Amino acid sequence: MPESRDSQNPARPAGPPPPGTWVLGRVRGIRLTMRFTWLPVAMLLAIGFATIIGRQFPELGNWRYVAAFAFVIAFTVSILIHELAHALVAMRYGIPVSEINLGFFAAGTHIEGERKSPMEEFAVSVVGPVASLIVGGLAYLASRAFDEGVGYVALWELGVANLIVGVTNLLPGLPLDGGWVLRAIVWKLTGNMHTGTIAAAWAGRLLAMAVLVLPVALEQIWGRTPSMIDFVIALLIGFFLWSGSTASLMQARLRRKLPGLQVRTMARRAIAVHAGTPVSEAIRLASESQAGAVVVIDGEGKPHALVSEKAVAAVAPNQRPWTTVSEVSTRIGAGHIIGVNDTGEEILSTLRAHPASEYLVLDADGNVYGVLATADVERAFRNS
User: Which of 230, 232, 248, 374 yields a CA-CA distance of 20 to 30 A from 112?
Assistant: First the structure.
């Protein structure tokens, strides 16, 4: 199944589960969750499979529903095996995995961090579909032990379902696993990870368009008249592929801009004032020094707060002589200090892990260099 990747976030424990999910437990420290939507879909699949069993084995009566639901549970377990394969191989390479989210159509493994090599990318991505193919093959072989009966039908259907999952996920286009495999191959050939992402994302878009025209192609090639359900399914799958590949394409383009972002060039020059300094005086000093930020220092001259630009703007001009900078400043918290030599990836990591409007910038010797405003980083992103 497509895996969820947050390659721009540092490794972190999984936060509270989003609304609409159940927490099932943990495996090797990985949180297992399931979407509430699993239940209605499971019921629909069980009813459909029960109908098939009922036609072939009418003597089962209502037990056919029990057998059908057991099949759905077995298929869910096979999806878990697929996702665990991704997760365990990622952990084998030292890549943290925070969560596995189960669902029939959008299961995902939340893998933190970027792969360090094309080989890691290839191994982590291909192992899921391979696991599904193995499970499908084993289920098919197990069905041969039954000449007939419910066991034969259930195992045969489980084998077919897993073979479909494995083959489908190997299609070479994002956000499918095969898209990440293609990304690894292009990355290896070109030496550029972002080129691999762009190639795989465009391949995903081509797959999306192919899926949309598939019902018409079936009619033209095999003479099968497509139903309305065929068009609806094609539309849903095509939308999934298009939106996923487009998101990957946008992320790749943004990440190409990251090396050009440097704290040194974006930081605002700052002046240092004591906590009791009136806002009007701080503004005057900043203007004289052509500084764009104000740092509040303590009695020992150490910075401990940053004057908020928004808070200053909210103070009426006639009140600024009577308002001290301590009243419009924000204490410098953990993670709100950034190095002057930091660049794109490090900047984005700090902003995501410790959100704030301003950050204190220190030079290599630990002295105040200036202040980095989040607004300036966003502006640099847009203009780069």
Answer: 374
